[in-house]
Specification:
2 copies of one chain form a homodimer. The first copy, chain A, is α/β, with parallel strands linked by helices. Chain A is 19% helix and 31% strand.
Chain lengths: 416, 416
């Protein structure tokens, strides 16, 4: 597979991967109230208007706007209030010229009214007591439609309310439920199998012997899978043995939609991972090596429309590379048109960050609020050191063909 | 309660609320691998070094650095390779001067070695075949410690690895597991009771009659509660009746850590909510009214250390106000030292946004990527219209004492 040992820039590498990933074909219909973070499987249309009746946006009086023409503090219009529209009821009254109806915010406007005068712009004639009818002074004119939400002003019937491939947020659930759409078709959550390899790796619950370390990549990747909407399947640790690794990979892929191998860190184990991916099916390994630091020796592949990744063993590289390839792949499997935008902040760099041209660097950084503004403090450390990420709030990206960044530069920090 | 009808700026109002909220006193110990998004209940200390042995960061040869002094392409150092350190094994060999050991990335360094020469900077004398011992040429000198991770370089024993009140991210889980901390003490997830009120409100599954609308605030708020780490308890719709609302609020608060009432939108119902909160316990209503748009008539209160909110009935106001008060309160209940930073992007405003001095405005905006950069398109609409938020990617904040924003201004958009 060494013919694939070409090193692509990250954007091209990701595009290559996604071209070989097929979105899941079997959506499911679930309760809208449980659909937070899920991805719409089809475009959704409004089955009705919203609202279905004309509503007041104010506490006040439904009126015929023409009756308030020219009204002002010095020359109020006098109207006869003939009744009150109860909340949650049909307006059920017809206003004749010179008449008004008491309405509350969200209440229905009588057919014969076309505007609402807010209560603060009126004065009751003869004091607060008494029932209907009674008289009010209108101290300000209103235009037709003022303080009224029209039928269909929020949504017109038949309108596309959400496109396919939309990641559902709280307000989207509200928008669907407002229209009575209590169920929604969404992509199922992709199952992501995670295998750790390496003769030196033991489970977190074990006491490592000399030369041994605990598996952490399975769990950091599982966390990233959950954040992207997938279901992680942590399948344990496989020894550095070709037949064992191949058997574990075949079994994992048979029960999942995506496979991630946290490869051992030595060259021989990486080569073994490349060979295993090559034997899983077509197209197999798409590329081996990405022009980034950390994370160059990442293996990117696909098997029958399913993403297969071989991550570097170093925990920092593994997380950054999974963010670069794994997260977009999970959204792609769900048919998402776009991923949720990453939060970014601008901050002043406190130290020089060297880089090499032709490589995209990601440097963990801690943010510090100061009187002089937000500072980005690079957290330097070998990519074997998970605590460089624990201490960081985000990543500074050093673009592909930029020799580095200077202390005092304003840099964009991508938040975790 | 009308003596509380003072209108505070949002930051002061939030500080006032949080001063009256008590963090939950009963943390729980859970599996670290399930702790994503949870908040640490105590500071966590490293029970051991990480790593516990000196590891190589390269595939290459463990050496005594002094043996490579002055080595270069034209004058290589010759070393005798006496064996290989297997992955996951003790190094188990002693290097004498002039000797080296083959090591892999992550492998243990023999006690007698103090640096690693990467394999690319060596050449095997006499070709690739053969076992040990064999001779190599070292083509580049290494310094003491080069390509070696020292014991405790990632974490020293006893170090504070995470403070109390830290919201756990994937890398934090990895950091804990690397040290064998398979369980972690975290705040329990606050239970947030949600009551909808309003005679006009029916459940989403019902067909609204004339003048009726479906409850959506219960579900948008539930989504926001989940995002902040809480457990939403949607308790249904209460009619506009003081005794019924008070009974429902008392029952809800008895089984939860926080109470949210999505108040009916009319003044009389808001006043009823204020009275109910006033009767739940001390201190009750803290303030009624916040200097923001949308959302001015928000009711902020606390009862015996638990937050109690009365949100405006309008769905846009309700979401924005819950984000402003409810989300910080949920993190505060969990003892979080800080909330996860909101993502923000800078974009060019496409239209004027009017505002009033003395008020903080939040305007929903859609983002558009163009050749000229990122544009922020305000989504104008009455705050009754949930689809203004569905169409938006985030909120533009118009600061408290700024008369408005102009088309062409560079504005910060807070992402949803």
């Amino acid at each position: 597979m060494t013919e694939f040992f070409n090193v692509l820039p990250p954007d091209e590498a990701r595009a290559l991967l996604l071209r070989h990933v097929r979105s899941l074909a079997d959506p499911e219909v679930i309760a809208t109230e449980s659909a937070l973070g899920r991805v719409t499987a089809t475009a959704l249309l409004a089955p009705q208007s919203l609202p279905t009746f004309r509503r007041s946006t104010m506490d006040g009086y439904a009126v015929r706007a023409a009756d308030t023409h020219g009204a002002g503090e010095s020359l109020p219009a006098f109207l006869q209030v003939v009744g009150e529209v109860g909340m949650g009821r049909a307006a059920g009254m017809a206003l004749r010229p010179g008449e008004a109806a008491l309405v509350h915010t969200g209440g229905m406007i009588p057919d014969t009214a076309d505007a609402v005068v807010q209560v603060e712009h009126t004065q009751r004639v003869g004091g607060p007591a008494g029932g209907f009818p009674h008289e009010i002074e209108v101290l300000r004119a209103v235009a037709v439609g003022q303080n009224v939400i029209q039928v269909g002003e929020d949504v017109a019937p038949g309108a596309i309310i959400l496109p396919a491939g939309h990641v559902l947020r709280p307000q989207d659930l509200g928008g669907l439920l407002a229209l009575g759409l209590t169920e929604a078709p969404v992509a199922r959550r992709p199952r992501v199998a995670i295998l750790a390899t390496g003769d030196e790796v033991v489970p977190p619950s074990a006491a490592p012997g000399p030369g041994q370390i605990r598996d952490i990549n399975s769990y950091t990747v599982a966390g990233q899978v959950i954040q992207a909407g997938g279901i992680p399947q942590v399948r344990g640790i496989v020894p550095d043995d070709f037949a064992a690794l191949r058997a574990a990979a075949v079994a994992a892929l048979a029960e999942s939609d995506m496979l991630v191998m946290s490869a051992g860190s030595s060259v021989s184990v990486r080569d073994m991972t490349v060979r295993v991916i090559g034997e899983l099916g077509a197209p197999g390994v798409l590329l081996h090596g990405v022009a980034t630091r950390p994370g160059k020796p990442t293996i990117v592949g696909a098997v029958d429309g399913r993403p297969v990744l071989g991550l570097p063993g170093n925990p920092v590289s593994a997380m950054i590379q999974f963010d670069m390839f794994g997260v977009p792949a999970i959204y792609h499997l769900q048919g998402a048109a776009a991923m949720p935008r990453h939060g970014r902040v601008w901050a002043r760099l406190t130290q020089n960050v060297p880089s090499e041209s032709g490589r995209e660097d990601y440097v963990p950084a801690r943010l510090e609020e100061t009187d002089a503004g937000l500072l980005a403090v690079p957290v330097f450390g070998k990519s074997n050191l998970i605590y460089t990420l624990v201490q960081a709030d985000g990543l500074i990206k050093v673009p592909l063909n930029r020799g580095g960044l200077l202390a005092g530069d304003l840099v964009e920090v991508r938040l975790f």
